[in-house]
C-alpha cells in the first residue's frame, strides 16, 4: 500500500458543519474537507435541523444523518466522490418524505 492509500485509510472525521451550500468535515489530523452540498441531494433537501443531527460512525470513518438516512464515508469525501444514489432511489425517498410530512400535524 502506498503512502497516499495509507493517508486515506487513516483519515477520521471529528466534526461536521453544513452551510446552505457546503459540507465541511474537520479531520482528526487537522485537515478540513469542504464539498458542495449538491454532491449529496439528501443533505441538500434536508432541513437545517435534520442536517445538524449527525453522528460519527466507525470511529470517524464516516458520518450518518439518521433523519435523512444518509451515510458518507471520509474516504469518499477525500476522493471527491458525490453520492452514488440512483435517481429512482432518490425520488422514492422524496416521495416518502412528502407523505410523512403530509401526515404531520401543523404546529
Question: Can you characterise this structure?
Answer:
The chain has 107 residues and is of the alpha+beta class. The chain has a single domain (3-103), classed as Uncharacterised protein PF10387, DUF2442 (NE0471 N-terminal domain-like, 2-Layer Sandwich). The chain has 5 helices and 6 strands. It has helices at residues 3-10, 41-45, 48-52, 74-79, 87-103, and strands at 13-18, 22-27, 32-36, 55-57, 62-65, 70-73. The chain has a 3-stranded antiparallel beta sheet with strand order 1-2-3. The protein has a 3-stranded antiparallel beta sheet with strand order 4-5-6. The longest helix has 17 residues, at 87-103. The protein starts with a helix and ends with a helix. 17% of the residues are buried. The mean pLDDT is 89.
Order of helical and strand elements: HEEEHHEEEHH
Q: End-to-end distance, in Å?
A: 55 Å
Number of helices: 5
Q: Which strand order spans the largest sheet, edge to edge or round the barrel?
A: 1-2-3
Task: Give the count of structural domains.
Answer: 1
Estimated radius of gyration: 15 Å
Largest sheet, in brief, is:
3 strands, antiparallel
Q: Could you tell me the number of beta strands? A: 6
Which homologous superfamily in CATH is the superfamily? Answer: Uncharacterised protein PF10387, DUF2442
CATH class: Alpha Beta
- Percent of residues in beta strands: 25-35%
Low confidence ranges: none
- The shape, in one word, is elongated
Keywords:
107 residues, alpha+beta, NE0471 N-terminal domain-like, 3-stranded antiparallel sheet
Quick overview:
The chain is built from 5 helices and 6 strands. The chain is an alpha+beta fold.
